[in-house]
Fold:
Amino acid sequence: VDASIVGTHIMLAAHDLGLGTTWVGHFDAPAVKEAFPEMADYDLVALFPLGYPAEGDEPAAKHFERKPAEELVSRL
Structure:
């Protein structure tokens, strides 16, 4: 839970600086540790790539698509 709170604050701070980011929770941790040996002693739980969004970039259209609750919820 604490890592999630920190991650959220990282994303908010990036936004305040005009940067774009996203939370990446599924990645090859051993490959990251190989590329960045200074991370060897850490348990990696998320990555936050940073960059400047392109001018006029709109969020992906799929971001706003939602499934109806009937497809997601089973009433018992």
Observations:
- The mean pLDDT is 87.
- Strands lie at 20-21, 50-51.
- The helical segments are 2-16, 29-35, 69-72.
